[in-house]
C-alpha cells in the first residue's frame, strides 16, 4: 500500500518531530558528556575541602558525617550524568530510526520517472577517464608509500644497516679472531703447573722427551720414589720441584719432591681445619681423599682434598692459608683439580648440595667470587682457554659446558650438551672447546655469545680421561681401550685404533707425540699426525691412572705406589 | 551522539568508597560465555539468509523482500550478535591462521569466510544484499541516492584493495585486527565503542543517505574478495526478467554505477586503438606488480609500527636515547613485566623482518589489482543488453522496478 498525499504530510511531520527530538536528545547528551568530562567525584573541590577540615579535626563526628554526605552527593551527580547519557543513547537511536523510516516511506512513495535518458553514455570516454584516474591513483599510492616510508621509519631501528654493520663486524671479528687465535699456545718447557700442564690443556712444552723406557728393567728410569700416602692426584712441576698429594684416612699431605733426585723435600700435613667434616665423605672406594691435582704458580702451592680442605703453602711447605670450603660430598668423591689464573685460585666445587665455581685470592685465601652453576655434580677440572682475547675458565659438566670470566667469575656462555656422569675435562685449541663424556657425546663448541656447537659425534666417548687438541687434531682415549683422532675443525674421524687396555690417564701432546698411559702402566706413544703411527710402547711396571707430567726432557709418572722420573740421559 | 554513551561505558571506574560500616561489597559478576551451540546456529542462520537472499534476488526478484531480509540480518547479526562473528573480519582470522602455525582458526570463523564466497561464486554478491549487517544498516539509511562521478568512484574504489592488503599483512604478522578495530558500525550494534569510531560510523551513515553504501564501496576489504569471486558467478541477478529491449530506462537506476550499458548504439573505439591499449596495459601489469612490491617493501618497516611490540620498543628507545619518558600504559606494564629491553628489541627486529617478508607480497597484490583493473577497462566487450557488473553489483534489486519488461509466462 502506497501512502497518499495526506499520509506523506503526516510522515513528513513525524520525521520532522523525530529529527527535532533526536537533535534535542543529542544536545542533552552533549551537555551530560561535558559534565561527565568535568566532574570527577574524587577531585571534587567541595569534597576535598570538607576532607581537609576533617583531617584537621578527626575526632569531629559531625565533620565525618559531612564528608560522607558530600562524597555521596558527588558520586550521585556523576552517576546521574552517566544514566542520562546511557538513556539518551537509546532515545537517540529510537529518534533516528523513526526519522529514517519516515524518510524511506516518503522516498519510496515517489514514482519512478520512466523517462528515457537523452544522450547515449560515452562508454569509451568514461572508460578512458576511469583508466586515467586509476593510473593516477596507482602512481599516487605507490609514491605515497615510498614517501611515507621515510616518515614512518624514523623512530625504528635501521635493521638493514644493522645487518650490514653486523655482517661487517662479523667478518672483522672472524678475521681478528683468526689473527688473535693464530698466535699458537706455547707451553713452558720447565713448569708444568696444573693437572694436564699449563692452563690444563694437555700440551707439554719443550722437546726431546723419552719414548722408550722399561720400569721393571730400570731402563731410562732416572729415579723412583714411593709416595708415602695413597693418591690419584697427578704430579705438577715448578722449577726443580714436583708436587703431589696423598692421604690416608683423614690425614692429607702435600709432598714436594726434588725433580732431579726424587727426594721428598718437605711434607705439609693438612688436617683438622675449622668446618672440616668429622667423617670422611662418601666416595668411590678406589678414589681416596687425594684425587685433585695440586696447582702452583711458583710462589703458592695449592691443594684441595675430598673433605673440602683447601690449602696454599709456599714452595718451602709453609702453610700460607687454609680453610674448609664445605663438604664436597658426591657419589664418587670430589675429584676436580685446581687451576690458577694470574693470582686467582679457581675451584670447581661439585657436591650433592651445591655446584659452583669459586675464585680465591691465591695469596690470602680470600674468596673473590663464587658463581653458582646449574645442573648436577661432575668430576671434571677447569681448563683455561683464550678466545678473542678473552681468557675463559672452561668447565665441562652436566648439562652445561660453560665459559666463565676468570677475573670476575661471570658466566660468559653456556651450551647444554652433556648428560650423565661427567669426568673428562674440556680440550681447547685456538678456535674451539671440546667436551665429551661417556654415554653422551663429543661436542665441538665455538665460544661466543651465543656459543655455537660446530660439530658433534658419539662414536668414542671417554668416561674418565680428557681429550686433547691442537689446531689440527683432537685426540681422545676411552675406558674401553680405544684411541681416536678427529679433524679438530670439521669433526671427521681421521683414524681410530683399539689398544686393548683401558685408559684413565689423560693423553698429553709433547713434542708432536701423544703420550697415552693405559691403566696397566704402559705408555703408548703415537705421532700426533694425520696417520696413525705408534712410536713406542713403554711399561712403567705398575698400574697407573694419573696423568704424567713433562718438564725439561723428562717425564714424571705417578703410578699406584711410586713416582717415576724417566729420562733418556740416564 | 551515541559516542557520548560509549565514552562513558568505556571509562575506567574510580575506586570504591571506603565504608567504615560492615557493608559487604557485592561479588564481581562476569557474563557467562555464550553456549557453543550459538556458533552452529549462527552458521545455520547465515546459510539460511544467503539462500533466501539468493532466491529473492535471482528468482523472486523482490526488492521489498531483500530489504526485509536485510532488516533481519541487521537485527540478528548486527544488534543481537553485536557484529561478531562477521565475514568481513574473518579475513583476518584466515590470514593469521595461514601464516602462524600456533593459531588454530575457529571453525565458525572459517565457515563465515568461505560460505559467502561460495555463494558469490554461484549467485553473485548476495551476501552484501541480504546477510551483511554492515551492508544492511547502510542500505536502510540510503534514502536519497546520488551518483558519484566515475573518476571519483574509480579512485575511491582502490581503497578497499589497500585496506585488504594491510589487514592481511597486519594479521599475518600478529600485529592488529584492523578491520575489527576500525569497524565503524560495531559500536552502534553494541552501543559501546571509542567515541571516535562512533562518530566515524555516524558520519558514514549520514554520507550514506546520499552516497549509498560508502563502506561497502570504498572501504570493505571482504568486498574485494566478493568482487573478484562473483565475477565468475555462474548465475547472477539480472536487471530484466526477460530479454532486454535496450530501452535505457535502467541506465541511471544504479547508485553504485554497477550497470553496464548495452553498446548496440554506442560508437566504440577503432579496433586498432583497442589493440594498442590492450597490449600497453597488458605490459603495464608486471610494471605495477613490481612497483607495488618495491613500494611496500620500502614501506614495510614503517608499517611495522602497527605492531604493539614495535610501538613499545620505539617508545623505550626514545626514552633511552633522548630521555623522553616512556609513560604509556604499555611502557609502564613492560617495565614491571621483567622482560628486558634486549628481548623487546630482539622481538622488534624479528617483527620488522616479518614485515619485510610480507610487505612485498601485499604490494604485489596491490599492483596486480591495479594492473588488472586497468587492463580490464582496456578490453573491448560487446554487450547487446543492459546488465549488472558482476563484480560491483550488490544484488540489492534497486534496478528491478526500472525495467518495463515483464517476466515471460507460459501463457504469453
Tell me the span between the first and last alpha carbons of chain A: 131 Å
The CATH class of the largest domain in chain A: Mainly Beta
- The number of distinct helices of chain A, counting runs of at least 4 residues, comes to 5
Structural classification of chain B: mainly alpha
Task: Give average pLDDT of chain B, whole number.
Answer: 86
Strand order of the largest sheet of chain B: 1-2
Percent helix of chain B, as a range, is: 55-70%
Task: Strand order, main sheet of chain A: write it out.
Answer: 1-27-28-29-30
* Number of self-contained structural domains of chain A: 2
Q: What is the CATH topology descriptor of the largest domain in chain A? A: Methylamine Dehydrogenase, Chain H
Could you explain how this protein is built, in words?
Chain A folds into two domains: 105 residues; 369 residues, YVTN repeat-like/Quinoprotein amine dehydrogenase (Methylamine Dehydrogenase, Chain H, 7 Propeller), CATH 2.130.10. Chain A is built from five helices and 33 strands. In chain A, helix 1 runs antiparallel to helix 3 and helix 2 packs antiparallel against helix 3. Chain A has a five-stranded mixed β-sheet with strand order 1-27-28-29-30, with no helix packed on it. About 2% of the residues of chain A have low confidence. Chain A has 570 residues and is α+β, with helices and mostly antiparallel strands. With 412 residues, chain B is mainly alpha-helical. Chain B folds into two domains: 226 residues, no CATH class; 108 residues, no CATH class. Helices cover 60% and strands 1% of the residues of chain B. Chain B has 18 helices and two strands. In chain B, strands 1-2 form a two-stranded antiparallel sheet. In chain B, helix 7 packs across helix 12. The longest helix of chain B is centred in the C-terminal third of the chain and has 38 residues. The N terminus of chain B is likely disordered. Classes of the chains: A alpha+beta (570), B mainly alpha (412).
Amino acid at each position: 500500500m502506497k501512502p497518499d498525499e495526506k499520509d506523506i504530510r503526516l510522515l513528513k511531520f513525524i520525521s520532522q518531530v523525530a529529527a527535532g527530538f533526536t537533535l534535542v536528545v543529542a544536545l542533552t547528551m552533549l551537555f551530560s558528556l561535558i559534565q561527565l568530562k568535568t566532574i570527577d567525584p574524587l577531585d571534587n573541590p567541595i569534597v576535598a575541602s570538607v576532607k581537609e577540615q576533617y583531617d584537621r579535626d578527626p575526632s569531629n563526628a559531625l565533620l565525618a558525617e559531612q564528608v560522607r554526605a558530600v562524597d555521596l552527593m558527588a558520586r550521585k551527580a556523576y552517576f546521574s550524568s552517566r544514566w542520562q547519557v546511557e538513556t539518551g543513547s537509546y532515545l537517540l537511536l529510537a529518534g533516528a530510526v523513526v526519522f529514517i523510516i519516515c524518510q524511506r516511506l516518503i522516498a519510496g512513495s515517489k514514482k519512478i520517472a520512466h523517462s528515457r535518458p537523452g544522450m547515449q553514455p560515452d562508454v569509451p570516454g568514461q572508460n578512458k577517464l576511469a583508466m586515467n584516474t586509476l593510473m593516477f591513483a596507482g602512481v599516487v599510492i605507490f609514491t605515497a608509500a615510498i614517501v611515507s616510508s621515510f616518515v614512518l621509519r624514523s623512530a625504528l631501528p635501521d635493521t638493514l644497516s644493522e645487518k650490514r654493520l653486523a655482517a661487517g663486524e662479523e667478518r672483522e671479528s672472524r678475521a681478528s679472531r683468526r689473527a688473535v687465535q693464530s698466535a699458537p699456545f706455547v707451553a713452558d718447557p720447565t713448569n708444568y703447573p696444573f693437572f694436564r700442564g699449563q692452563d690444563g690443556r694437555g700440551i707439554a712444552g719443550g722437546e726431546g722427551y723419552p719414548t722408550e723406557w722399561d720400569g721393571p728393567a730400570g731402563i731410562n728410569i732416572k729415579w723412583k720414589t714411593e709416595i708415602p700416602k695413597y693418591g690419584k692426584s697427578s704430579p705438577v712441576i715448578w722449577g726443580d720441584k714436583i708436587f703431589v698429594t696423598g692421604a690416608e684416612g683423614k690425614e692429607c699431605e702435600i709432598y714436594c719432591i726434588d725433580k732431579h733426585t726424587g727426594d721428598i723435600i718437605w711434607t705439609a700435613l693438612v688436617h683438622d681445619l675449622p668446618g672440616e667434616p668429622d667423617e670422611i665423605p662418601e666416595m668411590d672406594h678406589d678414589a681416596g681423599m687425594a684425587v685433585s691435582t695440586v696447582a702452583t704458580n711458583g710462589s703458592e702451592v695449592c691443594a684441595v682434598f675430598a673433605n673440602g680442605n683447601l690449602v696454599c703453602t709456599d714452595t718451602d711447605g709453609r702453610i700460607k692459608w687454609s680453610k674448609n670450603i664445605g663438604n664436597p660430598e658426591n657419589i664418587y668423591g670430589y675429584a676436580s683439580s685446581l687451576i690458577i689464573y694470574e693470582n686467582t685460585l679457581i675451584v670447581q666445587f661439585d657436591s650433592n648440595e651445591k655446584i659452583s665455581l669459586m675464585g680465591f685470592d691465591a695469596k690470602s685465601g680470600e674468596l673473590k667470587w663464587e658463581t653458582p652453576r646449574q645442573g648436577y655434580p661432575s668430576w671434571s677440572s677447569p681448563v683455561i682457554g683464550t678466545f678473542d682475547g678473552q681468557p675463559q675458565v672452561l668447565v665441562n659438566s652436566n648439562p652445561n659446558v660453560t665459559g666463565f670470566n676468570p677475573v670476575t667469575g661471570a658466566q660468559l656462555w653456556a651450551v647444554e650438551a652433556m648428560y650423565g656422569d661427567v669426568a673428562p675435562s674440556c680440550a681447547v685449541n685456538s678456535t674451539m672447546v671440546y667436551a665429551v663424556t661417556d654415554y653422551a657425546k663429543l661436542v665441538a663448541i665455538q665460544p661466543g655469545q651465543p656459543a655455537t656447537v660446530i660439530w658433534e659425534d658419539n662414536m668414542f666417548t671417554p668416561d674418565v680421561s680428557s681429550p686433547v687438541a691442537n689446531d689440527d687434531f683432537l685426540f681422545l682415549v676411552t675406558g674401553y681401550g680405544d684411541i681416536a683422532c678427529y679433524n679438530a675443525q670439521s669433526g671427521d674421524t681421521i683414524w681410530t685404533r683399539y689398544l686393548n687396555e683401558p685408559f684413565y690417564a689423560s693423553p698429553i701432546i709433547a713434542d708432536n707425540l701423544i703420550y697415552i698411559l693405559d691403566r696397566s702402566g704402559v705408555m703408548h706413544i703415537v705421532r700426533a699426525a694425520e696417520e696413525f703411527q705408534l712410536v713406542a710402547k713403554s711399561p712403567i711396571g705398575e698400574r697407573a691412572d694419573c696423568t704424567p707430567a713433562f718438564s725439561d726432557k723428562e717425564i714424571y709418572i705417578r703410578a699406584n705406589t711410586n713416582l717415576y722420573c724417566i729420562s733418556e740421559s740416564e | 551522539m551515541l559516542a557520548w554513551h560509549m565514552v562513558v561505558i568505556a571509562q575506567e571506574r574510580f575506586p570504591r568508597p571506603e565504608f567504615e560500616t560492615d557493608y559487604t561489597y557485592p561479588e564481581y559478576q562476569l557474563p557467562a560465555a555464550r553456549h557453543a551451540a550459538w556458533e552452529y546456529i549462527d552458521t545455520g542462520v547465515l546459510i539460511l539468509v544467503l539462500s533466501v537472499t539468493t532466491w529473492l534476488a535471482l528468482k523472486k526478484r523482490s526488492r521489498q523482500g531483500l530489504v526485509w531480509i536485510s532488516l533481519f540480518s541487521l537485527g540478528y547479526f548486527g544488534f543481537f550478535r553485536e557484529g561478531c562473528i562477521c565475514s568481513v573480519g574473518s579475513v583476518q582470522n584466515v590470514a593469521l591462521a595461514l601464516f602462524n602455525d600456533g593459531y588454530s582458526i575457529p571453525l565458525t570463523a572459517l565457515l563465515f569466510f568461505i560460505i559467502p564466497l561460495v555463494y558469490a561464486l554461484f549467485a553473485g554478491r548476495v551476501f552484501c544484499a541480504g546477510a551483511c549487517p554492515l551492508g544492511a544498516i547502510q542500505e536502510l539509511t540510503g534514502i536519497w541516492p546520488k551518483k558519484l562521478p566515475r573518476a571519483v568512484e574509480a579512485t575511491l574504489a582502490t581503497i578497499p584493495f589497500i585496506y585488504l592488503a594491510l589487514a592481511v599483512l597486519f594479521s599475518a604478522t600478529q600485529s592488529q585486527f584492523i578491520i575489527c578495530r576500525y569497524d565503524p558500525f560495531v559500536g552502534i550494534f553494541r552501543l559501546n565503542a571509542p567515541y571516535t569510531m562512533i562518530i566515524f560510523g555516524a558520519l558514514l551513515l549520514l554520507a550514506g543517505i546520499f552516497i549509498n553504501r560508502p563502506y561497502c564501496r570504498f572501504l570493505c576489504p571482504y568486498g574485494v574478495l566478493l568482487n573478484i569471486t562473483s565475477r565468475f558467478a555462474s548465475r547472477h541477478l539480472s536487471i530484466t526478467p526477460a530479454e532486454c529491449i535496450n530501452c535505457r530506462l535502467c541506465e541511471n537506476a544504479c547508485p553504485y554505477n554497477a550497470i553496464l550499458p548495452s553498446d548496440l548504439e554506442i560508437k566504440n573505439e577503432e579496433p586498432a586503438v583497442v589493440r594498442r591499449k590492450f597490449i600497453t596495459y597488458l605490459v603495464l601489469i608486471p610494471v605495477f606488480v613490481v612497483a607495488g612490491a618495491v613500494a611496500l617493501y620500502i614501506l614495510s618497516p614503517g608499517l611495522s609500527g602497527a605492531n604493539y611490540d614495535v610501538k613499545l620498543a620505539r617508545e623505550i628507545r626514545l626514552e633511552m636515547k633522548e630521555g623522553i619518558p616512556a609513560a604509556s600504559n604499555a611502557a609502564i606494564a613492560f617495565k614491571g613485566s621483567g622482560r628486558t629491553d634486549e628481548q623487546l628489541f630482539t622481538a622488534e627486529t624479528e617483527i620488522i623482518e616479518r614485515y619485510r617478508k610480507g610487505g612485498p607480497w601485499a604490494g604485489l597484490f596491490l599492483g596486480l589489482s591495479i594492473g588488472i583493473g586497468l587492463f580490464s577497462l582496456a578490453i573491448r566487450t560487446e554487450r547487446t543488453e543492459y546488465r549488472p557488473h558482476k563484480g560491483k553489483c550488490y544484488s540489492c534489486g534497486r534496478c528491478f522496478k526500472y525495467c518495463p519488461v515483464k517476466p515471460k509466462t507460459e501463457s504469453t
